[in-house]
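User: Could you check the structure of this?
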Amino acid sequence: MAGHSKWANIKRKKEKTDAARGRIFTKLSREILTAVRQAGPDPQTNLRLRLAIEQAKAANMPNDNINRLIKRASGGEEGANYEEIVYEGYGTAGVAVLVHAMTDNRNRTAADIRHLFSKYGGSLGQTGCVAWLFQQKGVFSIERSEGLDGDQLMMIALESGAEDFREEEEGFEIITKPEDFESVQQALAENEIPVADSEITMVPENTVRLSGEEAIKNLKLLEALEEHDDVQGVYANLDTDEVLP
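Assistant: Sure, the predicted structure tokens are below.
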């Protein structure tokens, strides 16, 4: 989930239940399998696979599991043939929502996603209705800590290829083009800067600021979409300080 309550969302990621971890492992496994089948088993030449492996390790997926998935996909073992689909729609108050899914049953997934939008007061839209509001970017979130100098961090980020640097109340955010993600990641590691969260994601060009019940309705929609088994990523241009219990 992206585009809202960033720091609260980072904290929630760290507090995932075992059931939630199981869903995350399933989605990461699906991403690794698809990446290998698309561009081969070598992470040095397959950026998508390399990023999927990094995400899996960040989620504490055992290395043995990762290696088995790569071997399974590269060995041509038969399995579900996942189709990648992007759904676009709106939450309440005009919030734009982008959903990336992988499915072996397009009709089932489309019906489920449409139902979730409707259940929480939103609507599934036509292809292209909100995608233009988002750009693919690399994002690093770094929490404030003793001894971390914002000016020095900004110089490290910009000199390693970052596109933008933002200082916020709870920490710092570094924005990169997808192709510069790894160089910035390496620079942060070399300077021993702890990263709270990092990903290549879809960043909205503008946001809708909401509070109270309208914000909660949208947060419930986004969480329901994110928890669907076929959904790999959910992105919205919602900006709010509200959090779900």
